[in-house]
Amino acid sequence: MKKIILGFIFIGTLSLHAQNIVRYDLFVRDTIVNFSGEEKRAIAVNGQIPMPTLTFTEGDIAEIYIHNELEEETSLHWHGLFLPNKEDGVPYLTQMPIPPHTVHKYTFPIIQHGTHWYHSHFGLQEQIGMYGSMILNKRPDDKTFRKGIDDLPTIPIVLSEWTDIKPENVHRMLHNASDWFAIKKGTTQSYAEAIKTGHFKTKLRNEWKRMLAMDVSDVYYDKFLINGKSENEDTSLKGLKAGDKVRLRISNGGASSYFWLTYAGGMITVVANDGNDVEPVEVDRMLIAVSETYDVVVTIPADNTAFEFLVTPEDRTKSASIYLGDGIKQLTSPLPKLKYFEGMEMMNGMMKMNGDLDEMGMNMSMQQMDMNVVMYPEITGPADNGKDKKREMDTEEHSDHKMEQMDGMDGMKMDGAMYKSNELSDITTLNYAMLKSPTVTTLPDDAPVKELHFTLTGNMNRYVWSLDNKVISESDKILIKKGEIVRITMFNNSMMRHPMHLHGHDFRLLNGQGQYAPLKNVVDIMPMETDVIEFEANVEGDWFFHCHILYHMMSGMGRVFSYENQEPNPLIPNPALALRKLKGEDRDFHWMAENDFATNGNDGQLMAQSTRWSFGTEWRLGYNDMHGYETETHIGRYIDKMQWLMPFVGFDWRYRKLGHDEVEENLFGQKNTKDRRSVFSAGVNYTLPMLIMAQAEIYTDGNVRLQFERNDIPITQRLRMGLMWNTDKEYMGGLRYIATRNLGITTHYDSDMGIGFGAMLNY
Amino acid sequence: MKSMFNILIVLSVVLSSTSGYAQIKNTKTETVKIFGNCEMCQTAIENAGNIKNTAGVNWNKDTQMAELTYDFKKTNRDEILKRIALSGYDNDEYLAPDNAYAQLAECCQYERLKKELVMAIAQPKSKMEMPESKTEMEVPSSENHMDMAMPESKLQMDMPSNENRTDMAISNMVEPNPLNAVFDNYFATKDALVKSNPAAASAKSTELLTALKALKIESLKAEEQTAVTKIMPSLMDTSKSISETKDIVKQREKFKVLSINMHEIIGFYNSKETLYYQYCPMQDANWLSKDKAIKNPYYGSQMLSCGSNVETIDNKN
Question: For the whole model, what pTM was predicted?
Fold first, then answer.
């Protein structure tokens, strides 16, 4: 009898503690979408983009079945979640990718709460629809339950962007420094525009410092989306009245876009970040970095009016809106266009001649000092057109101060105050220093500390992004021990901002809030900033740490933290193969081809480039033997940090039938025949100031050639000029008008072939 | 070479002629209201709305109606109206951002009827349901003070007399709560009785009666409604009696009843000052006063300081 009673008690306690299993079935399928007026391929899950919102309560057990009905592999990552390593969804690291037409089950206990999201971690699938909200609710009896916040009506919001260009192609174009995106955005920053606005010197100095036109984001997008739509009327909450408060759980599922958030109905109250509660803080606007999540509370100020919650990408090319409330729609002002030349001037000031950024003794961190404010008309006044004095609202003092500083550009001492957005205007912008955890977040004092330092490095021209100038495939996994505290100091020496994301752990962002440092899993680091994060190593496995800008990650900007002596991962049956595949991701070659079909012959080139290597062939093909045929092939490797120096070996072949064997003499008195030549060569490319490519080459027949070439000088938005001269007394000058992404109209004069007109096709 | 030029010329002629004849296809036409004043507005509205070969706007300044013609395969009514609103003009679908309106030329600063309408609907409702949202409610009407910068700059800071209003809080809101008038006139009547001035008492009591009649019960909170409805007949009756006589004794008799009834609803009156419920033992009667010192309305100068405080009412918040 006793036993039975005991048994009952046992069963009773079991059922008390039995956890709620929440199951989702996700069917991943190819689909055709039309966001921009053109039908394009995308990936939908359960027939929708974004993927369905997954909702759990802390304490649940998640069971998520992925039905991969694509013709390609996939893998889903649960962003910001604490879970066993094998459920983390990083292909070749925590699992092998899910093969087509199979089902994979992810299961993990939900041991936290907050706003998170999930997305494909396979290839570039995240760009074409594979992102969705993941809402982990607090239990009602949670000690941290906040009345007036956690009981408000909520709307899950996923921000994203859409491009009609296939993401693989976007990636390739970025690596080829295509300026198509800049043309679409109107941010070419050509010489004509520079002269018109009185920034000619700025532009010259910019090119002198070997920089391409600067921008705040890399890719041109056709649409920006809130929950899959550009114009969104909230239908989930009916009958909102004046005074009602709404909590928006916002995840930035964009592949490469940061978004400004502004609201027509007044201030925005930030109540959580990256799924962790923060002390409520009121701001006028905020920038959400790629892959971050923020919970904000907004108030509906009046009845019968819907208030616009405006989401603007950092480059401010377009926007997306959601209207909160019922009735006529009250708009908020769009963010004014960026002042790119002011930004260029600022970049010139920061950039040293060797390509490093100059810290100038400023201790920049936590997004407080934003160099980009020089580009924000709403903070620093409208664009100044050379002679016109800036008309500034209430920042007279600062602007005068700034003008002085800017006038004496080189060797000037920059003053940090001129970049502190919140001091320059009455617009309050959220920054990391304002985030404070409501609870103490300190880590155990007695645990050993492992210190790591990373410099975020990059090269815009070749689109190489790395840590300490090494991409994933060039670096080893970083070993850490369970129980130790890992403290990471990061300095951003690149010209772009990077949202660095750690898998499987929250880290403390040391932001001056002491014991109440906020917990995050993404830290956005602006150029020249230094930030420190620390986390307790408490879950075994191989955890990815990477820049969450999709194209930066795929270029190799990341590292793997690996726990020492961990159990083998059952989902990685062949670790050596998996590692090779993982490293293969940033080893891809990016192809580029172009040919100018001109009246005087064909001019073209074919290139394949990777992080370090470059294979290139150039040709000049006449239409008959008299004009001749000529090719030059170079195989080179970039060896310096800035990727300005590339030694190469090459092969030249030339055939021409002129009848008389003409012999040419070069500047050094060396002779060669133009008619028939077939030689190997060795040489070196070096990028000179003004982006002039200097090439020194020695051939197997003893000849030496020195060549200077500058292509793609931006004359106007779409007009490019190219110039070339070499010691063989050859020269060339050409103009190209970029008509479409793949077509240019050209004219050039060439010392060999004379004047020609043509059409250039490029890939 | 010559032939190429010829081809170019032909091509350009063909191209230019086609573009000259190109028109909006798949047309749909709608008529909508767009607010504006003058010819300048017309140009601005039409320029904001027009997109070559996609959308055309034809606005009439007299009727303030616009005819939208657009290619429904390329755009829609909302896109056009949003562009127009962003250039400063309220319309059927969208209200312009405040600073876009503020930047309009002076002659274009049309009266923002639409918004006023929204506020008129919004005010009484929000008053009873969410009184604490007062500051936010101000937002839509504040555009006139927002002649600078961004709308997201702290709106509240720009509002006149904001602080006073915050102090008043609960029931007396944007416009004086009807209950204010009732209490103000009650106190005025009391003061007249303290001074033994029956004419003034009668006059003030008439005003009290007017205020009671003007009181919109439905604009009060639910609990207030119940309480006020219950005592309303008595309040009307007593104030009417006081107003109709010049006999101060009769007035004082009625004032006893009036004071008891007013005390019933004192909890809903949100005064900036502390109030006192006072008692005259000689008359076994009470009255309400803003003054802690006793000034007896039942005897006037004869026994002015007779009486005591029986309750201190502190509704300040």
Answer: 0.76
